[in-house]
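Preliminary data (for renewal application), flavin mononucleotide complex.
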Amino acid sequence: MKPTPINEEIVLDPKRYIVSETDEHGKITFCNDYFIEICGYSKEELLGHAHNIIRHPDMPKVVFKLLWETISQGKNINAVIKNMAKDGRYYWVFTEFESRRDADTGKIIGYTASRKTISKHVTEIVSNLYAKLLEIEKKDGLEASQTYLFNFLKEKGDDINFQNFMENIHKFY
Ligand SMILES: Cc1cc2nc3c(=O)[nH]c(=O)nc-3n(C[C@H](O)[C@H](O)[C@H](O)COP(=O)(O)O)c2cc1C
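Predicted structure:
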């Protein structure tokens, strides 16, 4: 059973990274000690389970759609994500996703995510954008929310896509 979200933030140590690895389907195969400490689930509850175990209901679907479209092509991406701990509290992270390939075949065998804390200012802006995307998704569906996001990015510049927007998010604000 998913926990009930509570409006209380977990403050992260800016010096520590929250790291996890998954197989090619997004099932968790590794998490570091800080990951376990922050999310509050045990290693047994995490390993072998889908990564959406820490998904926060405030996250719009479109972010994960674009994330998977990018990483499954073997491209790296950064994304600002709000996660939910086992006790329902939340934590915002700047996440760097990388794919891992088989050395012989070049086939993607899994993904690695490395997370760190992000400034309050960026969090506020991203949370407003995500709230808008979620509202659109609930009302008009995923396609409408993607259209809104792409228009939002276009306003930032003709060469701005989700990937480089997330990469350069500090520069935009
Ligand atoms: C390496 C890796 C790390 C991920 N980390 C997170 C994460 O921290 N939080 C999260 O909500 N989803 C994360 N995801 C995305 C999940 O796989 C999933 O797409 C997302 O939680 C949405 O799940 P849902 O479509 O079942 O609702 C990660 C995926 C990968 C491949």
